[in-house]
């Protein structure tokens, strides 16, 4: 698959894909007869993994450490699991903070909704009193 197609599929820039390759997050991509990158299914799998991990808040440095451990082989599975657990803990903490922020926003909206009802009711009463 061509780099433009991969970029579109994963909503990444071609520069990001080249950067991932340059720093070793993905293996060197095979080239076609014309010398253009030709991404394999395995490359796509790796890119999807990277995209999902970035969405989970994983830093490039952590991803690089994970990929380096992966490339060493199965003996690094415990270390990779720990990196994933650590990231999950950070993500859960972030979700907790986002839920607190969400609750606060909902409370603020409710506050203004309530005040608008009170203000509207007050305004109607004033108009009614003026008409009498």
Describe this structure in words.
The protein is an all-alpha fold and 132 residues long. The protein has helices spanning 3-10, 14-22, 41-55, 60-72, 77-131. It has 2 domains: 1-55, Orthogonal Bundle (Multidrug-efflux Transporter Regulator, Chain: A, Domain 2); 59-132. Helix content is 76%, strand content 0%. The relative contact order is 0.07. The mean pLDDT is 92.
**In percent, how much strand structure appears in the residues?**
under 5%
Low-confidence stretches: none
Fraction of residues in helix: over 70%
Instruction: List the helices and strands in order.
Output: HHHHH
Measured on Cα atoms, how large is the radius of gyration?
Answer: 26 Å
- What can be said about the biggest beta sheet? none
Work out the number of β strands.
0
Distance from N terminus to C terminus (CA atoms, Å) equals 78 Å
Q: What's the average pLDDT?
A: 92
Based on CA inertia axes, which overall geometry fits? elongated
Contiguous helical run count: 5
Q: Which structural category do the helix and sheet elements fall into?
A: mainly alpha
Q: In total, how many domains does the architecture comprise?
A: 2
